[in-house]
Design a protein that fits this description.
Length: 344
Amino acid sequence: MNTLGFICFLLAFHASLSVKGPFSAAQNNNGAPTPQFMPLQGLTQNFYQTTCPKAQGIIKSEVTKIINQNPSEAAGLLRILFHDCFVQGCDASILLTKPMVSEQVAAPNNRSLRTSTIRILDQIKDKVEAVCPGVVSCADTIVLSTAIAVELVGGPNIPMLLGRRDSNNAASNQTVVANIPAPTLNISALKQNFQNHGLDSADLVALSGGHTFGQAHCRVVDLQLTPTVSTDLNAAFAANLSRICIPGGTNNSANRGALTVHLDFISKDVFDNSYYTNVLNKVAIFHSDAALLNATDTKQLVQLYAQDQNKFFQQFKVSMLKLTQLGVLTGRNGIIRKKCSVPN
Ligand code: HEM
């Protein structure tokens, strides 16, 4: 099947397996926990209003230019934000490359965070530095750029709070491994990982919705395909993934390490609720995606968000606000890095 054939297959597949969850609209309202969020002291929406009033405008215009050229960078940004905040807090430690060993080469990140996105963040920060030197943190640059990008590709408006400061050190490989969930985790390990970060099942399900766009490297996808095809995957979908990823398939090139597949084949660069339909239809790629169906509370939320994009967006907004205040440095703590890759 060629690419067009594959897309047609998936469209037909989605249509034939449209979601029929057990909820009526009224039950949806009762079934969903009310999203709750407590703002952290020291963070405000207009943090730079007096110190760098142009900051937000500059970041918005840069991100808009970038997303117009390449909408898939929104996914690159969201993953960098997640991997920053889950390891030692949202302190931009993920962007440090010198003089310490970078988190970027730690096992869960190795060769899978987009270098293009890291360069983009450096460029945005340079533009802000040119106007207000030493004022706006790299941590806030990641958070604000991501929120703007996600909204530009269809996601909700997230009223991000600002005022984070940067760390001057990166976390060890061991710390990254301990904090970033592996795609092989089962539902109780996923819940435990999120709970360790102060996040609940609703946060787990809503933030996993980040897999509604972006890509995965074949070496990760292979975990679901070899030695035997995982029962997480629809058989025809797995066969197509194998054709793309497995040696001997159509892409048996020397450059296999760089091969990727879309996390969402239907709307690959759009932030919408199709991730949840994909999970229900067994066309979401990772075991950690399928595992959301293995506990009653997370399964009900997958069904709810598949039916109701507004409910997903409401929870995603709150979960992102919670995620982006994990372990933040404020006030006199931390520094403002001028170049995000070095501790000044
Ligand atoms: C729940 C546990 C999670 C696991 C096990 C997981 C695992 C992964 C893996 C293995 C990849 C593919 C990496 C690659 O091969 O390039 C990936 C991609 C991605 N993840 Fe997750 N993830 C999780 C949660 C999240 C969360 C909470 C977010 C954001 C809120 C997120 C956003 C993304 C995005 C946007 C991509 C695509 C990145 C790109 O296209 O550059 N993930 N994830």
